Amino acid sequence: MHRRRRTALALSAATLVAAPLLTACGSEAHPGAAAVVGGDRIAVSTVQAQTADVRGAQQASARSAELEKSSGQLTRVKLSSLIFGRVLDRAAQDAGVSVSRKEIQQTRTAAAAQSGGDAALRTMMLEQRWVAPGQIDDSLRQEVQLPKLAQALGADLQSPAGVQAVGQALTKASKALHIDVNPRFGTWDDTKVQLSTVKVPWIKQVTTVPGQQPEAGA
What phi and psi, each to the nearest 5 degrees, are found at residue 40? Predict the structure, then answer.
């Protein structure tokens, strides 16, 4: 069970990064939008707020300088995570999968116990996943959602074939949403299910076969 939980968390491209905060959208068609997903806007202000929450938590840490220096792509990763969450929602909906509040709370309780308490969980999520305390439940929702999607597809996330099946479902959902990203953030990759500009070595992509090294980057 713990192995699957760790796998799901690692696969959650969700779960996560700080270029300078952006103030406007480069697309005249969607002013103020960082991205448009399925016709719905993700506002630049939403990305800014998520980034600011992480920065605030980092600054309150005794390791603030180290944490801020290591999270140089925070803004782009936050946008990538927001988009991924909507792609996962679409794939889950297509597969008839839902996640309850109770499941999220159960997962948080188990994760806290495994980490050494809720405070330790908050520290781990901030330092390793660039997730602010107020963002943990949303991150854990994806941790619940992803293995449930795999189960609905009859896919085993511990196997290359299972990972490929889930990746294909996410790619299908991603394409169906016609994702349009503000060029200053990069472009969306339907196959990798992430922003093209997000290159953080510790993020394991959903479509990466177990044992394969994730793409390295600055």
Answer: -100, 140
CA 131, CA 82: separation in Å to the nearest integer? Answer: 12
- Distance CA(212)–CA(209), nearest Å, equals 6
Question: Hey, what are 214's tokens?
Answer: 């994730």
Q: Which residues lie below 8 Å from residue 48, measured CB to CB, with a gap of 6+?
A: 21, 22, 75
CA distance 186 to 197: 5
Residue 208: pLDDT above 90? no
Backbone angles phi, psi at 141, to 5 degrees: -60, -40
Phi, psi of 77 (to 5 degrees): -70, -35
Structural domains in the chain plus CATH codes: 2-195 (1.10.4030)
Return all residues near 16 (Cβ < 8 A) that are at least 6 apart.
77, 78, 80, 81, 129, 130, 131, 200, 203
Going by DSSP bridges, is the β-strand pair 33-37/194-195 parallel, antiparallel, or unpaired?
Answer: unpaired
pLDDT surpasses 90 at 61:
yes
Residue 52 clears pLDDT 50, i.e. is over it: yes
Q: At 26, phi and psi to the nearest 5?
A: -80, -10
CB of 153 within 8 A of CB of 166?
A: yes
So what's the pLDDT on residue 108?
Answer: 96
